[in-house]
Amino acid sequence: MWDVIIVGAGVCGCAIARELSRKKGRFLVVEKEEDVCCGTSKANSGIVHAGFDAKHGTRMAQLNVRGSRFMPRLSRELDVPFRQNGSLVVMVDPGDRPRLQALYENGLANGVPGLEILEREELLRLEPHISDHAVAALYAPTGGIVCPFALTIALAENAAKNGVEFQFDTQVVGVGRIEGGWRLETSRGSLETKVVINAAGVHADELHNLVSEESLTILPRRGDYLLLDKEAGSYVNHTIFQLPGAMGKGVLVTPTVHGNLLVGPTAIDVEDKEATATTREGLEQVVEKSSMAVKGLPLKQVITSFAGLRAHRPEHDFYIRESAPGFLDCAGIESPGLSAAPAIGETVAEMAAKILKLGDKPDFDPIRKGIQSPLTLTPEQRQALIQANPAYGRLICRCETVTEGEIVDAIHRVPGARSLDGVKRRTRAGMGRCQSGFCSPRVMEILARELGIPVEAVTKSGGGSQLLVGKNKEQEADHENL
Description:
By secondary structure, this protein is an alpha+beta fold. It is 31% helix and 22% strand. Strands 1, 2, 9, 10, 11, 12, 19 and 20 form an 8-stranded mixed β-sheet that branches. Strands 13, 15, 16, 17 and 18 form a 5-stranded antiparallel β-sheet that branches. The protein has a 4-stranded mixed β-sheet with strand order 6-7-5-14. The longest helix has 20 residues, at 59-78.
């Protein structure tokens, strides 16, 4: 029997796993997809919110501010790119001055440091491309940006280093009480545990409603994005929001930690919890609404579009509690969930540790080193690395300058990449201007070789997403002869 099973390997599930790995016990993360970071955590804005927006007194507000304060230290421990670039909430209607002031006061009440209201002249000095309609803005210097999948992967790797196990392609289909804990019925058999932590994202309500008389409702809310080339990455310096409305913070414009420019998201409620396809309507909204805050966006430099789903609760607050004895919910984690994740991980892990009376692990190691990029080394260090391992001298992805050595490292980490998307999220191979048009065949060959599988078994993202089909007997014979 496991001490704790965490259902869901998104950023919150992995943050909880890392915090639990500070304790003595047997911990398992189960995930229905083939890798960590396959849901909401892979398709969001990558924003570390300062914490001025969430309603004062809510769990969302408390954990947002605490989580954002953890992020600088966490990024150093886990070797994850993070930048405190500051954020601006732009007001375009002079009649909205009371709402801007209320946002400022809410931020002060939440404990957000350094908040200021800037008038147009000051705003223009910070952001020359700000909209001609911009009147004033709330400035939050502690706002930041992070790579959401790099953070999730790093949390998972550090948790695994400290003893947490991961099991993928494992969907939980039933939950029942047993003596001393719970039995989870999964697509790969039964699992028993003393404590369950439900971090299943948009599916968290389904799991909760199997064990609790108090019904929980999660509404999937789709957000469409446009990603621009690195040539457009310096068009703005700060994360630029619009004054929030009923559907959230509106369309934002922000640089990314990797040097691109990101525009989005929309906020469109959908019924299908797997509906992550972009729509023409959604992308047109992104284009139209982004121009309200930033003028002249170089949208001809868009290299891709994508969409993600937020786990929205009508009550608009995080749902973190013990819903049944030994069953902990971590649900309704929408924006600012990424910002709050370090604090959510600490909170939920402490709840589980208290139930089980877990002691501290004296040899917990908080340090994780990322994949070594030769570009970060001096010429002398780079030459020494290539001499020691020639794979670091073989360039695979030209757009993002990713070598074979980095891809091999990504595959053999724990948990490691098993698909094209898994490699992409860990190394950025395929995330550049050509969007894997040139490098994907070579990455597939490396995956096949390192995993010991036929190249036609390599998938884009697990499941039935094979990229090669229809290989005939003659081709198989030629392949064997090679």
